[in-house]
Amino acid sequence: MADSHSTVISRSQTESQRNIGYLLHPCITDKLSSSPTIADIGTGTGLFLTRLAKQYPKAILRGFDISSKLFPAPETLPANFELRVMDVKCPPPETEHNRYDVVHVRLLTVAMNSEDWEVAVRNIARLLKPGGALQWEEGNLADGRHLRGGPESSVSAARFVGSLFREGLKEKFAYGWNTLPQIMRTTGFVDVVEDIVSSDRVAETRQALTANGMRAMCAWAKYRMDRDAPGSPSLNELQEIEAQAWKDIQSGCYVRFDIHIVVGLLSA
């Protein structure tokens, strides 16, 4: 989360959540009270908690993020809803220990190095009550691909941007989505389950999800260009590629990758 690349990744993942099909995994909701205490890590605008509040109006909801940049104004939040700055890679304050029935995390891959995953899971375990649930969602972006949605769809520019993104972040994309289940088991979580769905499962979400991803990838490419990173295209080249990539999306091009949802209960 301290990684500066994380600031370009959109946290408003409505389309991803629709493809998953639930906010919290059924193995959590089956046992959850009507007034739980729930934390959301990497909360961004707090969208996940806003949606969850409709299902659990009596819940105590707290969102955490490395930056308050995306937080809505405090006066717009309900009384049971609070947003705070916290880095999941740092030990949480003792006032937050053993406090939450559920901790939800998503889409931190870009901000994580290989050694950060176990550290983050251990820090999250401190937040949970004994028997509390961790749900963590990550995409296998290493295998993300842009596909034609129809016979007239163009894809070349979108695929080029995607290849730059995957190559530039390949070391980060090699962990998390595939290592979380074992990390959770070795750090005190039991009944660990993994659900996997395709990002394009719900056809009507494809364009919006692909557009969100393209915004993030283009912002990342500009970030690298501004810092003269090796292999970065020039500003003119990037603008031309980006313009064509948006035409690709309008023509029906869409992205596909697997979304991994890992759930476990902290050993009592």
The biggest sheet amounts to: 7 strands, mixed
Query: What Rg, in angstroms, do the CA atoms define?
Result: 19 Å
Would you report the number of β strands?
9
Mean pLDDT: 93
What's the assembly state of these chains? single chain
User: Helix/strand/pairing class, anyone?
Assistant: alpha/beta
Q: Please mark out the parts with pLDDT under 50 across 5 or more consecutive residues, or reply none.
A: 1-12
Task: Give the end-to-end Cα distance, rounded to a whole number of Å.
Answer: 28 Å
Shape: globular
Count the helices. How many?
9
What is the element string, with H for helices and E for strands?
A: HHEHEEEHEEHHHEHHEE
> Share of helix among residues?
25-40%
Which percent band covers the strand fraction? 15-25%
Question: Could you characterize what this model shows?
Answer:
By secondary structure, this protein is an alpha/beta fold. It contains nine helices and nine strands. The strands form two sheets. Strands 3-2-1-4-5-9-7 form a seven-stranded mixed β-sheet, sandwiched between helices. A two-stranded antiparallel ribbon has the order 6-8. Helix 5 crosses helix 8 (206-226) and helix 5 packs across helix 9 (235-250). The longest helix is centred in the C-terminal third of the chain and has 21 residues, at 206-226. The model is unreliable at 1-12 (pLDDT under 50).
